[in-house]
C-alpha cells in the first residue's frame, strides 16, 4: 500500500508515518491539499496529515478539506511529540548567531518565539510549507547564512548541524495526525502505543433555534458519552453559519452513538460520522518532558 503524507522527507508527519507504517511504501507531498488530491485520485491508498497541534490549535486546511472536499473516513489517529531544534549548514555553525534569516513552518516559528526573540532578535523569519522544507532550503543554499527550525530527523536527512536543541517555548507540545483511507488497515502496534478508540461526528445545527447546541450536548451527556473535543467551523455559506466537530471517546457501537444520531436528526440537525477509529501515541521515549 502507498501512504501519502505532508512532505518532504523528515517532516513530523514523516516521523509519525515511519512509526506506524514501517513496511509500507511512503510518498511525500509538498502540501496538505496535494496529499488529499492524491488520495482522491487513487495515487495512494492512505493519507496522513496533521489535524491539531497542542499549542497552535487546529490545522484549519485539513479540517476544511475533510469536511468540504474529501469523502473518505478517518481510520486512525497518531499523536506524536514535537521537538524543535535550530539548525544551520555546517559551514555556518560557528557563526550561527549571525544568521540572516530563519526558515520554518508558521506553527514552528510561533512555537519558538522566545528563542527567536532572545537569541536572534530582529532576524527576519520566512514561512515554508513544512519544517523539513526549511531544512532542505538551508542545505541547498549554504551561502545565504540561513537557519531552519525543524526536527532531528530533518537535520540528519539534509546534513545540517543542530546548534541549539529543544528551542520550543513550551515543553509539552504534541501534534495529532489523522489517517484517511477508503479501506480499513490492520495497524501494527510494535512501535506504537494503542490508547483507545474515538468517533468523530460532524453536526450542523438547525437555523435560528434557541438552545440547539445545548440539546446537542445533552444527547451525549445523558448517555454518559465523554467528549474529548468540540469545535466550531464556518460552513462557508454565509456569516453566522457554523458546523460542529465532536470527538467521542469510544468506538462506534450499535446502541449509544446510533441513538445520539437518531435523537439529533429528530431535532432537525444534520449528522455525519467522519470516522470511528483507534488512536495511538508514538515517540514518547524520545520526548524530553
UniProtKB/TrEMBL annotation:
Amino-acid biosynthesis keyword on record: yes
Entry keyword Amino-acid biosynthesis: yes
CDD domains from the UniProt entry: ACT_CM-PDT (cd04905), PBP2_Sa-PDT_like (cd13633)
Keywords: Amino-acid biosynthesis, Aromatic amino acid biosynthesis, Lyase, Phenylalanine biosynthesis
InterPro entries given in the database record: ACT-like_dom_sf, ACT_dom, Chor_mutase/pphenate_deHydtase, Preph_deHydtase, Preph_deHydtase_CS
Origin: domain of life: Bacteria
Pfam families named among the record's database cross-references: ACT (PF01842), PDT (PF00800)
Residue ranges annotated for the Prephenate dehydratase domain, each copy included: 2-182
Molecular function GO labels: prephenate dehydratase activity
Known catalytic reactions: prephenate + H(+) = 3-phenylpyruvate + CO2 + H2O
Gene Ontology, cellular component aspect: cytoplasm
Top-tier EC class: lyase
Biological-process GO terms, alphabetical: L-phenylalanine biosynthetic process
Entry EC no(s): 4.2.1.51
ACT domain mapped to chain residues: 201-278
Pathway(s) per entry: Amino-acid biosynthesis; L-phenylalanine biosynthesis; phenylpyruvate from prephenate: step 1/1
Positions bearing the site annotation: Essential for prephenate dehydratase activity: 175
PANTHER family: PREPHENATE DEHYDRATASE P PROTEIN, PREPHENATE DEHYDRATASE-RELATED
Name of the protein in its database record: Prephenate dehydratase
